[in-house]
Predict the structure of Pseudouridine synthase.
Amino acid sequence: MERLQKVIAQAGVASRRKAETYITAGRVKVNGKKVTELGYKVNPEKDRVEVDDVPLYKEEPVYYLLYKPTGVVSTSNDEKGRKIVTDFIESKQRIYPIGRLDYDTSGVLLLTNDGDFANVLMHPRYKVEKEYIAKVEGIPDRRELKKLEDGILLEDGKTAPAKVKIMSADRKKNTAIVRLIIHEGKNHQVRRMLEKLGHPVMKLKRERYGFLTLGQLQPGGHRVLKPFEVKQLKEMAVTKPS
């Protein structure tokens, strides 16, 4: 017997956390009866589970790396009709992004239909590094960089220590290129961290997720993750608890 939200996640409908919201919202039925209890257990082989009246079926897990362009929403649907990340990948499975990149941020984004895999990578107790390159207004000094390295207080709490380096500076235009490595995923975190220092972000790109980089991909391009990459990501998360 398995918890209902786990079965939904394994079917590729949504992450386990999102599946829980579906259950509490009354969108899930088991053998024709609505279930709103999160601890409810089912037999995946025998029980008929439906989400929004659509029966579940076990999908083969798929894993993609997308070079997300700017001006694209990191969701699998958008009420405003804007371009979404899943528009760039033709997949028979129902895939969704692991975490998000801001509308105006480009770079590495992973997509999957494996809810357990997504949960592991997004869980705050695991330290999977994300590397960003930001073009900012002004040129941060050593004192300001130290604040980022020690953790900076934002509205929703203090950030974990970051690795920071100025890659280049243009004193005529009063701008700088900053590399920032973090392992958290607070909303708009990198932008807010730099804004807090008085150096608003002009352009932002995620260069790396864990050990995965963009390689030869162009904006909008994608590739399937190799089995050893999926295995390595899982091991990386499991072996690095905070």
About this structure: Helices lie at 4-10, 16-24, 115-122, 142-150, 189-196, 227-238. The chain is about 20% helix and 30% strand.
